[in-house]
Amino acid sequence: MAGKVAARRAALRENLILIAERTISEKGLSALRARDLASEAGCAVGAIYNVFGDLTDLVLAVNARTFHRLGADVAAALAEAPQDPSEQLVIMAQAYHRFAAENHLSWRALFDVERAPGEAAPDWYLQEMGQLFAYIANPLQVIFPDRDAHELELLTRALFSSIHGIVLLGLDEASAGVPTDEIERMIALVLRQITSS
Amino acid sequence: MAGKVAARRAALRENLILIAERTISEKGLSALRARDLASEAGCAVGAIYNVFGDLTDLVLAVNARTFHRLGADVAAALAEAPQDPSEQLVIMAQAYHRFAAENHLSWRALFDVERAPGEAAPDWYLQEMGQLFAYIANPLQVIFPDRDAHELELLTRALFSSIHGIVLLGLDEASAGVPTDEIERMIALVLRQITSS
């Protein structure tokens, strides 16, 4: 009996994640409502909270999948990139931009989820982020062999944040109808300047 | 009579902006609700929509004031800066960071307000943004005298977006308890690299 209950619970969990994933990707994080989720999943609103502590937990489960897809895209781009470290950074940044453009609302949800003040990001988030940062740190280490580990770590975070900012504001403008085929040029411009040692 | 009605309307408008400004700065954009606003302003919910088309219009009125304060802070920092163009960029970026840190939720609201797809930013926003960009473009022109106008414009936007990304992700980490006294170092690191011609 316990096995059946656990299986039903797992099935509902998976189903809620899929429904929330589609809602977020089509309408954005702010469109997510417990009532609508329950109605689409064919369960009571209370059943959602038996499976997830609150809607934020559900969003985090969706975000874990989004982040994983993002990481896979960046890794795939890197696998095809030439050995040149600057070129590797540009190719990864372009993959990041492409993923963000093609999965705009899901990508926004990665960063827009509200955490209670003082609450740290979940472990899986830190791990995925750490993996992304390692991809960036490797070519930086080749470009700047003389910088110490701490400075390289700062530069890695600064570079990721810079590309993130360019993509974020660029896609905001794109959604407002401003042409942004120049996002790629801005990325290349900044990376070229940053990596010219 | 028409004068009295107009004056009452103007007073309600001003009052709603002040209430919304405080709500956003203390609790964030997502805490803004017409019912609460009406109750605090002592008016009917419908009266809000006589003055503002919708809540987004009210948020934009608050954002106009926030953006204006931000611009004034950056201008004040620039007025005290030395003639060195790289130094001017660092000082403006630090002023941007300081403003964002001290007015975190109001600053977030500048970028988090939802626009209908395809809807352009309002004119005042483009003007304030244009003014900020002019502050950045001037020292860049001194640093890169040989770049053409279009490339300088791209570099200006890229540089602003980069600093924005560093401040945004840095403050997110700070609100999650991660120590981020290193935001200033990341800003300096990126600017130093970008402006080394």
Automatic annotation (TrEMBL), chains A, B:
Residues 10-70 form the HTH tetR-type domain. SUPFAM superfamilies: Homeodomain-like, Tetracyclin repressor-like, C-terminal domain. Keywords: DNA-binding, Transcription, Transcription regulation. The keyword Transcription applies. It comes from the Bacteria. Residues 33-52 bind DNA. This is TetR/AcrR family transcriptional regulator. It comes from Yoonia phaeophyticola.
